[in-house]
Amino acid sequence: SIASAIDYSTTWSNRFSAAQTASATFHTPDGAITCDFMNQTSQRRYYWGKQFTAVKQHEQAGGSMLFLLPNEDLSASSLLHDPEVLNFIFSDLSGSSWDNSDTYTVNMEG
Fold this sequence. Notes:
mainly beta
């Protein structure tokens, strides 16, 4: 598994619609920038821990990618040292091995 991706190319099982792409503000450690965001709303499994929330996006070829969002007061890099996060990343999410999860309507932006 990878901890981050600079360039990742795949075909998602639920494709993002180009018509739903819109400009929005992206907050970086160096300040805010404006860029295009892909948007998608669907029913999906939503996960959470003490310091993060997450969703899984499935690939057409059978794999999947986890998208983790650190709590507002944390950096993304701080999650890499959190035992709960590492346990989550390496858990078997195909079953019910993660207690903090439910199915919600999730708006994916990215």
